[in-house]
Fold:
Amino acid sequence: MSLAIVLLNSIFTFTNAFDMDKYLANFVSSDFVIANAKYFNSEYSARKEDLQESNLTESFIEACEEQEGFEKGGRIYAATDQVGVKISDYKIPKNMPVNENGELCWMWNGEKIPVTKLNEENYQTMYYGVDDFLFEKMEVYEGEKDLDVIKEKLATGNYLIYAVSTDDNGMVRKEDMVHHAGDKVTLSFPNGEEREVEILSVIKENYYGLSTRYSVIFPYYTTAEVFRKDLSEDYLMSYSFDVRDDREEAIQQFVKNYSEKTEPTMNYESKLKWSNEFESLKGMFTIIGCFLTFVVAVIGILNFINAILTSIVTRLRELAMLESIGMTKKQINKDADIGRNLLRRIYDDIFSAHRDVNVRDNIAGTDLTDLVYEISVCNLANACDFSVFTGAWMASSKGCISFSGKEKHDRAAEKCRLI
Structure:
């Protein structure tokens, strides 16, 4: 039973240690993210030929912005087959692996995989354009940190932000860094333009909030205006926005209904949705823990009942044996009273030494205390055969064992045999 109590306490201590804020920080940057359903299914390619089937619609954005409680939001554009990094101008860092041909690689299950190329002259990139709202969600690891300066310089088109991958604890994977703040790279655009740009800042990768949800070696960010100028506004990937706290549930219901009935190809994620996922995960651990505790408790109770029943049967055999050698019921009861009173006094001494006096006074004399005394008597007697030894000694010392009453002796012996 004590094991079950310890296990139950451990389960609740463990589940209450779950930090919802830390959990949400890994998945949520804003209250809502809306996009095409393919985006949330990790099927978004950000390629020109898939734009019509996988992009977000402006009508969905407008419907969200019209809702009461809407505060602010921002678009994210993404293109993976349009902008490249010129191979001849790129200097491979010492921390990055290369193959026998000197080609830049990335590690996968211990194997060197060559970096994907846009064409023979350029590495493939993931080129992002974000509205001002999304810059507030970025965590700068290296380089310029002032948001106003970042926006101002990015607006010139001569600077970029580079995102480095992180581990599950949000720590930067330095071995995967292909740029540092201040590095310069040459970008190639579809119209044939080549532009040398400088890495203004290095940010931590925001996998769920600011990316296509698959990793690439060269993820770059610029402003939405520069992106639309360089490429097109057709590459609209997602839209993130915040709402008033008191309208969060209402807007979630609206977004859910809209994505299910008005535009079924659209979908969404929300902070409330991830919060429910967290509670579900926490509840799963609690249910499993409580079930295990219940099993252990049942086993403990059954063992206790078995011990009590075994002790009762043993006592009945002992009492029948005492009666068979001539001890009267009065003497047996007197013997049990002596043992019970002795153990009661011992229990009182131990109880008063380990419990507060007020608690002891509150429960002393209750049925629960008597029950504990009785159990203690049974357990101690079971351990040392107290009743047999003491009863036999008392019977012999007082001369109460009689072998002349053959009928009485046989009757008692028969009772002992039946038990």
About this structure: The CA atoms of residues 135 and 148 lie 10 Å apart. Confidence is low (pLDDT under 50) at residues 356-409, 415-419.
